[in-house]
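Trying the structure run again after the queue cleared.
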Amino acid sequence: MIVFDLECAQGHCFEGWFDSIEAFEKQNSQGLVSCPICGDTNVRRVLSPVALKKRGQAQPPTEEESANQIDYKRLAQEVVKYVQENFEDVGPKFAAEALKMHYGVTEPRNIRGSATEEEEKVLKEEGIEFFKIPFPKKNDKKTN
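Done. Tokens:
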């Protein structure tokens, strides 16, 4: 197995495990490799140290190692669920709503939504703190 560092057109970095470079190239050309964050299938390899798994040399993790492993996928799902349940979705009006709260026009509340790069720049210039959480797209298409 070969592990490649990959990046989608949106700049999200992630790993992909493949039998060979040819297997990656074939799957990628067929649109079967997609970003786990946004679902983008415009994916490319980025420079990285290549990890090789030699046959027959894999050791199962010890009980202690297994207990200490973090399930990042589950953690990300829990963060997304929490934000969806506890933040008002204002959609593309995020910047306008954040500015209204900042200047006392509306009551402060937890909001989530989207903003353009220009709107993000304005929010930063106004001293409004925010952070981005990538929400994974739901995709029925089977991908790696």
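The beta strands are 2-8, 13-18, 43-45, 51-52, 88-91, 111-113. Worth checking whether this holds up in the mutant runs.
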